[in-house]
Amino acid sequence: MDGIEGSQFPARYWHRIEDGRIQCDVCPRFCKLHEGQRGLCFVRARSGDAMVLTTYGRSSGFCVDPVEKKPLNHFLPGTPILSFGTAGCNLTCKFCQNWDISKARETDRLNDQAEPAMIAAAAQQLGCRSVAFTYNDPVIFLEYAVDTAKACHAVGVKTIAVTAGYVAGEAREEFFSHMDAANVDLKGFTEDFYHRLCGSHLDAVLDTLVYLKRETKVWFEITTLLIPGENDSPEEIDAMSRWIAQELGPDVPLHFTAFHPDWKMRDTPATPAETLQRSRAIAKSHGLRYVYTGNVHDLEGGSTWCSNCGNLLIGRDWYELKGWGLDAEGACAKCGTTTAGHFEARPGTWGRKRQPVAFRR
Fold first, then answer.
1. How far is CA 310 from CA 292, 300, 323, 341, in A?
2. Which residues are bridge partners to 312 per DSSP?
3. pLDDT tens digits along 17-67
4. 169: helix, coil or strand?
């Protein structure tokens, strides 16, 4: 197997360069590999004279979650979603909250094996309205995610990507053409933050967000994990909120979530609830209509309110829906103002349950 462990599914988006190496073109890292080497993501590797994906059909685990946990607050609220990921990541975030999966360097931990059709069938049988590619970034297992998305769509199951948006142009176009919704981590709003704490660049992520807004019909929401002393200043939140309002519009939901000490930032304190509430107020001052707080118990910041009359549209207690003020068309039942998103006449009733699912051959 030429020194490369794991499955060797033929990968797309690479080319040979003059010095004999091959270059991966999935993400802006453009890793250049000699025989037997892996990219920084660890799962895309050179085998012989080609690129392979070493984790096709293998997962770190499957679980049925509420869709709000992704987080998506405006896409089929209250419904269950089958979530899974693989291993590896193309970013090096020192604050990673899923580091045991995304930083994994052993494919032996991928105990759950499932072909795309098996995942789609399981989602149907479990009553899931959608499948989420999550836990680690799905752009690095693009071929597996796309094939699974095709299988899901064939049986009427929606697909959701939870991603940092660090993906190159051609691969980005294919990847998102198979997604119905996405949550994009906008990890900060300075190049210094991205370079120093994520080992990547801000502009590529902003390009993805603009692409989603202008070139696709993918419903997307944005999440920013606020880290004390790093990306939580009022000035940075002000600049980010202003950019979102100008480039993406007022209807893109924005989630500010609380950091907890993890991975290589265990000495950094957890985010105070006051920081989330202050950031929410700043974002709303720029005209953003749907701004949320997460990873804290905040009934007001976790709920959806009518942008016109202030009526409670969707009450949330953590991931439990506690109120519903939308009519059958997804508009405010009080004043008739349309609410941006994908809603049905009635919300789902999954609640906050978490149900592990095992796939075994």
1. 15, 12, 14, 17
2. 305
3. 999 999 999 999 999 999 999 999 999 999 999 999 999 999 988 999 999
4. helix
Do 71 and 44 lie in a common domain? no
Which pair of structure tokens corresponds to residue 141?
């297992």
Sheet of strand 312-317: strand arrangement: 304-305, 312-317, 320-324
Question: In terms of domains, do 185 and 70 share one?
Answer: yes
What is the 8-class DSSP label of residue 326?
B
Q: Which domain holds residue 323?
A: 59-352
Number of domains in the chain: 2
Give the DSSP letter of residue 340.
Answer: S
At residue 305's C-alpha, the angle toward residues 259 and 279, to 5°, is 35
Residue type, 314: I
Q: DSSP assignment, residue 198?
A: I
Report the C-alpha dihedral over residues 70, 71, 77, 79, rounded to 10 degrees: 20
Q: Measured between alpha carbons, how far is 183 from 221 in angstroms, rounded to an integer?
A: 5
The first and second tokens of residue 113, run together, are: 């094996």
Q: Tell me: the pLDDT tens digits for 160-186?
A: 999 999 999 999 999 999 999 999 999
Burial of 270 (0-12, 13-18, 19+ CB in 10 A): middle
Give buried/exposed letters for 186-203 (b at 16+ CB in 10 A, else e). Answer: bbbbbeebbeebbebebe
The beta-strand segments (E) located in the chain are 9-10, 14-16, 22-24, 32-33, 44-47, 50-53, 58-59, 61-66, 80-85, 112-113, 130-133, 158-163, 181-185, 219-226, 254-258, 291-294, 304-305, 312-317, 320-324, 355-357
Residue 28 DSSP code: T
Q: What is the pTM of this model?
A: 0.95
118 and 258 within one domain: yes
